[in-house]
Amino acid sequence: MRSHSRADSSQAANELNIGIVRLRHTENKFGIIQVRSLAIPEAIADGRYDVGLVGSDCVAEKPSTRFEVRAQFSYGRVWDSLPPRLEFIAHPDSSLGSIQDLQPGSIVMTERPLVTKSYLEEKIHHPVLISDLGEDLVDFRARLHEAGSVGINVVPGSVPALVEPDGYYGVLVNETGGTARDYGLKVIAKIMDIQTLLIANIHTLQDAGKRELICRFQQDLEGSWQDIERESRQLRGGPERSFY
Q: pLDDT band at residue 14, thresholds of 50, 70 and 90?
C-alpha cells in the first residue's frame, strides 16, 4: 500500500498520511493491514478485505478481478512527488535505444507479466513469450532465439539487480521521477502512468454501515488531496510538473 513519507507540518498532508496508513481506525472502527501491492486487487475482490488503496498498474495486472473503483489519486510514496510511472529500463552500458530495437533472445524481468506482454506486443514485431515456472534462463533464452521471440521472466522484486548489458532488461515502478537514475539505470520508455486507486469489495458496499464508513473515508481522502494539490501548486508556482 503506497503511503506518503514527507515530513510536513501541513495539517492536510498529515491527515492524508493518517488516512492512508491507518484508515483512522480509532474514530471509524476500521482495521488496517499492509498487503503486497499485487495481492490487493484479489484480496478486495474475494472479500478478504473490504477496501484498499492500490496502484492502477496492479489492477491492470489482474484484469479478471471484480470490485468497485471509488476514487483515484495522482500520488505515490512521496508527498508532492511526480505521479508514479511504470517504466522499461536497461543497464547503463546497454546499447538499446528504443523498445523497437529489442532483438530475439532478449529477456525482460518484471513483476507485471501481463501488462508488460501487452505493451511489448503493441510496440515490437517479434512474438512475446512468458517463461515457464522455474525455467532456467539459459534454456529460456535458447528457446527465444529458436522461436525468434522476446521473453518475459516473472520475478518477485529486485528487478534492478537483474538487469544486465547483454539483453536482460527490466520493468520498474518509478515512484518519484528518479527511481531508475537512483539505481544507475536508464529509462528506455514509459509503459504507463500509475494512479493510486481506492477500491472496495462489491458485497461490502451493500452493507449500509460499511458503505457509510467507506464513503466518509473517501470524502476525507478527496478533501485532503484537494487541499494538498492547492498548496503544492502555490509552492511550485504553477500546475505543470515534468519528470525530466
A: very low
Q: Give phi and psi for 55, each to the nearest 5.
A: -75, 145
| Residue 139 β-bridge partners | none
Domains and CATH numbers, the chain: 11-82+195-236 (3.40.190.10), 85-192 (3.40.190.10)
Q: Yes or no: say if 200 and 44 are a contact pair by the CB < 8 Å rule.
A: yes
Name the average pLDDT for the chain.
83
Residue 30's closest CA among 38, 21, 40? 21
Average of per-residue pLDDT across 150-172? 91
Instruction: Please report, for residues 73, 105, 106, 145, 158, the alpha-carbon distance to residue 138 in angstroms, rounded to integers and kept in the order given.
Output: 41, 10, 11, 11, 19
Q: Could you read off the pLDDT of 49-82 as tens digits, one per residue?
A: 999 999 999 999 999 999 999 999 887 666 666 7
DSSP string, 203-241: TGGGSHHHHHHHHHHHHHHHHHHHHHHHHHHHHHTSS--
